[in-house]
Protein 1
Amino acid sequence: MSAPAARAYRPPAPLGGRRGARVERRRTLTALGFLAPALVILGLFVAWPMLSALRLSFTDASGFGAEEWVGLDNYVRVFTDPDIRDAMLNTLWYTVLFTPTAVLIALALALVLNSPALPFRGFFRTALFLPFIVSLAVAAFAWSYLLDPRLGLLNHWLQGAGVQLGDVLEDPVLAMPAVALVAVWKNFGFYMVIFLAGLQDIPASLYEAARVDGAGAWLRFTNVTLPLLSNTFAFVLIFALIAALQAFDQIYVMTGGGPYGSTQTIVMEIYRSGFRRLELGFASALSYVLLIATLLLSIVQFVFFGRREKDLG
Amino acid sequence: MTALAPRAARARIRPASVVTFLVMAVVTAFVLLPIAIIVFTAFKPTAEVNAYPPTLMPSEWTLDNLARILDELPFGRLVINSVVFAGGVTLCALVFDSLAAYALARIDFRGRKVLLVAIIASLMIPFQATLIPVYQLVAELGWINTYQGLIAPRAADAFGIFLLRQFFLALPRDLDNAARIDGASEFRVFRSIVLPNVVPALMTLGVFTFVNNWNDLLWPLVFTTQAEMGTITSGLTLLTGPGGIIPYGVMMAGSLVAVVPLVIGFLFVQRRFIDNIATTGLK
C-alpha cells in the first residue's frame, strides 16, 4: 500500500550529477549502519550454519577427530534406513492428524466468535488463545497427567462415559494421536485469531447483499465467507503444515519417541542422531531434508501470497 | 448505529445464541482444563495427587509441592536463567530488529530489495536445520553454558524485522521528512520520531519473543550441559526420568512457576497483542 508512495518520493533523477551520487552513497552507508547488528547475527547464526550444515551433511563428522568426505552416503542412508523411513512416515501421520484438526477447529471457533450475537466474545477469545502462551513442554506434562491410566482425570471421565483407553502413551496406536492432540490444543488459538482477522476484513455489505438475494446461512458461508477467506485459509494451512514438520517438544516430554518408535519424528531423529549418537554428518543430511521440505511448503505459500509480496516490495 | 442497537439486543436473547453460548462455555472449559489441572494439582497434598478416583480440585490446599520443587531442581537459578535468556533475547532483538526494520522501511538505498528478499527467505529456514552448526559455532567461541552463548544466536530474527517493517511502512512519510528537513540525523529520526509511534508493535514483538524463548525446549536442552545453566522449561524435563515414578504434584508446581509469569503478563497486554499478531501475516 505504501510502496507506491515510497517510489513517488525518490528524488527526481540526476539534477546534481556527482552530488546526487554522493548523497546516494551516504544513504546506503547509513542504511547499512542500521542493518549491521542484525546482519551480523543473521549471517553468523543463520546463513553460515546453513552452509556449514550442507558441508557437514557430506562428511562423517562426529564432533571429534578428523572428518572425512563421504559424498552422498548420508543422504543414501536418509532414504534407505528403515528407522528414518519410519520417522518420515510418523511425521506424515502426525501431520495428517494435526493439521486438519487444528485448522478446522480454529475455523469453526473463529466463525462462532465472529458472530455479534455471542455474549462475552472478548472473554472467549482470550481464554481460547491462552494455550498458545503455555509451552508445549509444560502442556505435555499436564496432558500426560490427564491421560494417566490410573491418576488421570480425563481418562477417569472417559471411563465413566464407557470409553476404555488404557495407557494411551504406552499404546503404539494411540500415542501419536495423543501427542498430536497436545499440539492441536496449543496452536488452534493462534490459527483462530488469524481466521478472525480474515473474517473481520470481509465487508458486511456482501452479507447484506446475499441476505437480500435470499441466501441462507449455509449459502452465505459457502458463497461469501469461504471464497473471501481462501487467502487466510492457505496461510494458516501452510503455517500448520510447517509446524507439523517440526514436531518435537511434547513428543520428547511425553513419549521420548516411543512406544516402539511409534512417535519418533524427523526432528526427534535429528536430536537423537546429532546430540545422542553424535553422528553430526548424518544428522545434518537429515536437517537438509527437513529444510528442503520446509522450503517447498514456503514456496507454495509465496505463490499464494505473491501478489501481496509484490505490493510490499 | 442506533438502528442496529435494538436488533443486537434482540439477537442476544435468541434461543440459538443461548445454545451457542453454552456450547462455547463447555468448549472453553475443556480447553482450559489442562491449565486448571496445573494450578489445582500444584496445591494438592501428595496423597490426593495419587488418590483414586482422581479429582479436579484439592480438598486441602498445600504449599508442599512448591517447596519440594526447590529441592528437586536448582529452581531459583533456573528462573533467573529463564529471565536472563528470554529477557536478554527480547531486548537485543527489539533493538537490532527495529534498527534493521527502519533501514528497510524508511531509507531508500541501493540493494534494499535484495536484502529484504534475503531476510524474508531466511524466515523459512527451520531452526532445527541449523541447530548442529550453531551449536558447534557457540562451542568454538567457548560460549557453551554461558548467557551470551544462549542469547547471541537469537539476538536478531527475521520475523521481528519483517513484522516491524510492516508497521514502519504504515507510518506517513511526512512525519520523518519534516524532521529531516529540520536537519535531524537518521538515527534521531528513528529514535525520536519513528520509534515512539510504533510502541504497540514493539510491545507485541517483545511479548512474542519473550514467550517463545521462555517456552523453548530444544535450544536450551542441547545447549546446556550443566543443570544450573538450563531454563525452567528444559529443567522441568529432568524430572521425568526414565523408569522413575513421575511426581505429578511436584511437576505441576514447577509448571505453575513456568506458566504464571507469562499468563499474568499476557493478560495485561492481550487485547493489543492478539490484534497485532492476527494482522502480522496478512498485512
Note: The mean pLDDT of chain B is 85.
Protein 2
Amino acid sequence: MTVLRRLALPALALLVAACSEQPEPKNEVVVYTSRNDELIKPVFDAYTEQTGVSIRYITDNAGALAARLKAEGEQSPADLLVTVDAGNLWQATQEDLLQSVESTVLEGNVPEHLRDEQGRWFGLTQRARTIVYSTERVQPSELSSYEALADEQWKGRLCLRTSKKVYNQSLVATMIERLGEEEAERVVRGWVDNLATDVFANDNAVMEAIIAGQCDVGIVNTYYFGRLQRDNPQLPLKLFWANQDSSGTHVNISGGGVTRNAPNREAAVALLEWMSKPEAQKLLADGNLEYPASSGVEAAEQVKAWGDFKADDLNVSVAGSRQVEAVKLMDRAGYR
Amino acid sequence: MPVTADRRPDRYLIIAGALALAVLLPVAVLLSAWRGDESETWRHLVDTVLWRLLGHTAWLVIGVGIGVLLLGASLAWLVATQDFPGRRVLDWALLLPLAMPAYVLAFVVVQGLDYAGPVQTALRQWWPGFSGFSARHPLWVIATLSLVFYPYVYMLARLAFLTQGRAVMEQARLLGRGPWAAFFQVALPMARPAIAAGLALALMETLADFGAVSVFNFDTFTTAIYKSWYGLFNLAAAAQLASLLLLFVLLALWLERRGRGRARYGDRGGRPMVAVRSRWAWLMTCYAGLVVVLAFVLPAGRLLYWTLDEVARGLDARFMSLALRTLTLGISAGVLVVGLASVLAWLQRLRPHRLMRALVRTATMGYALPGSVLAVGIVIGFAAIDRQLGQWFGWRQLLVGSLGALFLAYVIRFMAVAFGPVESALERVRPALLDAARTLGAPPLEAARRVLLPMVAPGLITALLLVGIDIMKEMPATLLLRPFGWDTLAVRIYELTAEGEWQRAALPSLALVAVGLLPVYLLVRRLRHS
C-alpha cells in the first residue's frame, strides 16, 4: 500500500507529462501572439518554407498572454511575443517580460518612433486611426482635427466606438501627451456631448451607422474602412486625415519583442528581423490592409489610394505610458 | 450524523475536500491579490463607474431572473401538461437555444436591431417619420440573455412537472381548486427545487458573462474586472473584484438553499399527465413557436445568410479538424466533469452533514467566475507548481499549457452544471432500493450496477450533454490554457471577432451551433424516453 502511495505522485506527474507538450527541438520558435491566425499563419508558413525553422504559436488576447508569460517566468516556452498596440508592448516591458535586442537590421528597418528605445519591441505594421465621414452630408472642408470634433457644430452628428477598446485609449493617451490632461479631458467631454447615439462595440458598426444616416462622422482604424471598401467600392464614406496642420494623424502599431526567458533567443531574433524585411512586411501589412512599419516598403494599392498623410511621430510607447491616465480620463468624462 | 464519534479522519470528507481544494486553487490565487494595496484603482472605480456597473448588474440579474423564470417555467408547464398543435416538435425545439453561444446571439441581435440594421432600415422605409430606437437598451440585453439561458429552467422544470404526475393536479382539482390555483398552489411549489436549480445556473452564467454584454457595450461588474486588467493594467485589482463576485455567488447560493428549505425532488412515480387540448391550444403553439424562432431559428438563419459568402473562403480541412477537436474536448472533458460531479453527489449522500455540504457548495461555485479570470488563476497556480517541480527534478514546464490545465478549468467552471442533474438523479433513488438489493444477496458493486446505475443513468447523461455543450462554447479559458495546436471553433470565433469581423465569424459560429446540436439531439431523445 505504501509502495502504491509512493508511486502515485510520480505516476500522476507522468500522466500529466504525457498530456503536455514534449520538449521542443532546437530548430523551432515559439510565438505567443494576439494576431489573427489567418493573418499570421501565411507569414510563418513563408518563413518555415524559406528557412526550415518551424514555428509553433498560440493566439489570445495580449493581456492574457502577458499574464501567462509572467506566470510561467523562466519556464516559459515562448520566444517571441507578437501583438497589436504599443500600449500592450509597453506594458510587457513594465512587467519585465521582454529583453533588449541589438540588431542593425531591425534598427535599420523600423523607424525610431515605432520601436522601444531599449530594443525590447519593434513595430511591424502601422495602424492609422483617423476620421471617417459621410460623403453625402459632410464637406471635407468642415473637418480638421480630432479635437475639432468636440465643437458645437458636430452636436448629435458624431459616432464613436467604446472607450474600452485600446485603440481609443491610445488615441487619448497621445492627446494627453500633446495637449495636457485638462485640455484632453475637455475634448473628450466634447465628443461625449456630441454623440448621436450610444458608443458602439466596434469600428464597423460606427461606419454602418454613418452610412445609415444615424450620424455623420466617426473615428476608425483605416483597415476597417478598407475592408468595407473592398466589399463595396461605392461606399458613401471617405477617410479624412486628421491633424495635418498640427501633430499629424494618430498611428499605432502591431509589433513584437523577444521574451525575457526565450529558450531559443537567436532564432527568435532572426524571425523578428525577417518580419521587418520587405517580403514579410508586405504579407503582414497587406493581409490586413495596414501600413508597413518599414519605411522602404509600399502599402497595398487600395491603401495607397487613400492618399499620403502626415503621421504623428510621437514615440508610440506613449500609448502605454499614458494609457492608465487615458482610461481614467475617459471614465471621468463619461465616455463609455 | 456524528462525525466526531470516529477519531479517524473521514476519507469521504477527504475526497470531497480534495475536489473542493482543486476549485479553490485559482480562487486562492485570486484571494492572494488582496495582499497588495490597489486602493488607487479602487478609488478611481468607486469615484467614476463602479456604482453604475453594480446597478447594471443588479438590473441584469433581476431582469434575466424574471425572464428565464417566465419563459422556462411556463414553457415547461405547457409542454408537460397541455396538448397543442406542434407540441411534439416544440418539446425538443425549445432546447435548441442551448447550442447558441450567448456572445453569438448578442451580436446577431445588436446587428439586426441597430439603426443601420435590417429591421430599423425597413421601418424607416415604410414609415418616414420613424426616428429609431436603441438596440443597446438594457431591455434588449435582458431579453437576449433570457432567450439564451431559459433552457436551463425549461429542461429541469419540464422533468419536474412530468414526474409530478397527474394525480397531484387531479387531487387539487377535486379539492375544489381551479386550474390556475392548482398550478400556483400545488404544481409550481412542487417543482420549485428544479426551477431554482435552473435559475441558479442561468444567473451564475449571467454574472460571469462578458462576451455578450460587451457586444451590447452594457457595462456590468465583469466590465470592471476587465477594465482593471486590460485598461488599467492592474491584474491584482481585477482579481480582487473577481473574488468579490464569488462572494455574491456564495450569498446567492446560500439564499437559494435556505429558500428551498426541506423541499426535495421526489419520484412520485405517478401516471404521466394526459394532456387535454383546450381552446387556447393555438395560442400556446404561437407562444412556444415564437420563442424558438426568436432564440434559434432567426439567429441561425442570419448566421447562415452571412456564411453563404464565406463558405468558399473558410471551409477547408483545418476547419473540419477544428470542429472535430471541439467535439473531442466537449466529450472527454464532459465525461471527466460528470464523473467528478457524481463522486461529489455520492459523497454528499453518504455524509449528508454540514461540512460536506459546504465542501460541495465550494466545488460548484466556479461557474460564476469569468472564464478569463479563472484561467489566469490556474496559470499562476500551475506555474508556481511547475517552478517547484523544475527545481526538484529539472523538468521544464509540465502543467501550464497541458491538457490537464485546460481540463481543470472545465471542471471548475462547469461542475455546477453537472452537479444539479446528477444530484437530483441520485435523490430519486430511494435508499431502501439499494438496501433491498443488498438484502437479496447482491454484493455492493453488483447492487450499484444493477440497481443504481440504470436509475441514475438518465441524470448522468443529461449532465454530460449539458456540460459538453458548455465546454464547446467556452472561449476565454480555452484561449489561454489550450496546448499548442488545440484550437477550437470558439478560438476561431475569438480571432475573427477580436478584429470586429463578426460577419466572417458566422461560419465558425454556425459550425459551433451545428456541433452543439448533436448533444442537444441526444438530450432530446433522452428526455423523450424518460
Note: Chain B has one domain: 11-529.
